[in-house]
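In this section we walk through a basic example: taking a raw amino acid sequence and producing a predicted 3D structure, encoded as discrete structure tokens. The instruction is simple. Fold the sequence below.
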Amino acid sequence: MEQRRVTRLCIQCALMLLQHGAESALVDELSSRLGRALGMDSVESAISSNAIVLTTLHNGACITSTRKNHDRGINMHVVIKVQQIVIMAEHRLLDAADVEKHLNRIHPLRYPRWMVVIMVGLSCACFCLLNGGGWDGALVTLCASTVAMFIRQLLTHQGMHPQINFCITAFVATTVSGLMLRMPQFVETSSIAMAASVLLLVPGFPLINAVADMFKGHINTGLARWAIASMLTLATCIGVVLAMTLWGLRGWA
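The resulting token sequence is shown next.
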């Protein structure tokens, strides 16, 4: 049945967007546009942080489908590819069979792990430099954040719970930067280097999406995302405090 097929495509579209970090309003809009482009009268969806319920209506008949959401990490490459497929379907360049093929061909773009580690380290070092940490502080931040990002990737690859991952990573970053600041070469270095070394753990994207969801009427999803981001921030704080307490490090200035 054609309506059943289109329903599966719409919820697959919505699920891929939600799994890779799209805001709820975009998930709702693109899944609805795809359904109408493929001949449905309307598409209604209910989005939560861990599931999607979607209904298509066509000639007085409705079909409802539910899918469980599993977070696959933020990846705007997937979001853009899905959006391109929807636009092509709206311009009658793709039919249902073509849309299915294109959606199944989408694979998240992953940069090499070594490149991510280096670029994250450099970005944290630049933040330290821009905030008056000096070149010596930038060097400390570069070393600490590079090691921390490597540990974070390693723990993620091992399937570690995100909150435990953030706590351990913050502990490592603070430990490396704090102990380096005790070395004679860095005695006069600003302790802003310690703060900059954990910048990689700021959950900026989830917080932005949370605020966007709440402003656009998706209160439940926004609150859920806000809670998750807050728990990650708390885990980061615990890791920092544990490191400073254990090693007796000086506080952030």
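Looking at the output, two observations stand out. The mean pLDDT is 91. Residues 104 and 246 are 49 Å apart (CA to CA). In the next section we compare this with other chains.
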